[in-house]
Amino acid sequence: MTESPKCKKSPFIKAGDKRNSLRAIAAGGAHLMLNPMRWTVALSAIAASSARSNEDSFNALFNEITGGKKPSESRIFLETPRLADNGHSAAFRVYVDSPMSESDFVKSIFILSDRNPRPFVARFDLTPLNPKAEISTRVRLNGSQNVHALALTSKGEWFTAHVPVEVTESACLDAS
Amino acid sequence: MAARIITPTNIKSNEPFEVRILIQHAMETGYRLDLMGTLIAKNVIKNLTVTYLDAVVFKASLGTGIAANPSLQFWMRAPQNGLLKLSWEDDLGVMGQAEKLLEVK
Lengths: 176, 105
Hints:
The complex is a heterodimer of chains A (176) and B (105). Chain A has 176 residues and is an alpha+beta fold. Helices cover 30% and strands 32% of the residues of chain A. Chain A has two domains: 5-56, no CATH class; 69-169, SoxY domain (Immunoglobulin-like). In chain A, the strands form two sheets. Chain A has a five-stranded mixed sheet with strand order 2-8-7-4-5, with helices on one face. The longest helix of chain A has 37 residues, at 30-66. By secondary structure, chain B is mainly beta. Chain B has no helices and seven strands. Chain B has strands spanning 3-6, 17-23, 45-52, 55-62, 71-76, 82-90, 95-102. Chain B is elongated, with a radius of gyration of 16 Å. Chain A binds chain B through residues 88-90, 111, 113, 116-127, 129-132, 134-141, 171-172, 175-176, and chain B through 16, 29, 31-33, 52, 55-68, 70-77.
């Protein structure tokens, strides 16, 4: 049986698209219906597994940084637009409540993302020469997600916070 | 690669002020394709150091999660006039420097 041009197009018909499905039936052959279904299922499985692996690598990195310790969810304040139009560049500010004295200061601040292909965003090292533990930067976000911050003080305490960001146009999707 | 260090014009001795660093860098993620369809290698600023009077005041290592042309802001104090020096290195080993004289009133 030779394949019609319609048949070749079939992988791009969405499962829920009734009009295209009917057209596919009209073109004849039950396999035409099966093909698009298989494609959609396969694609969603790939998407789900990559989202899960991103989350796994985030959790692994989080535990690697803290050395398995459970950070307390306090003293860090994050500021970012609730809705970031452009995932290629979203303003991000992290502030840690600390006296920044010789005996008690914030040594390191980590920024992590739980859905980027690489969860590590940045690490900043501060000293008592900094009067405030506050950093502003611009981050790349691959879709709506939580952005996490971790802070280590000179006393060895860990603090964490996260903020949800909605991203309209995500980074990393296009190959341009 | 050009870089800029932006500080307030009016710095008072030992008063906190915010420093802003802007570096021209593509911060390649390693996922982009060029016109021929080949992958562009990952290239980000892996190490960045700011010193003032030869003491380190700020260190950063950036990942692919930082937007192209990184902008970084942090707080510091300056007790006296001195040179604020910025240096960085990216994954390809390209190094860059910038400096600015802080005039303290």
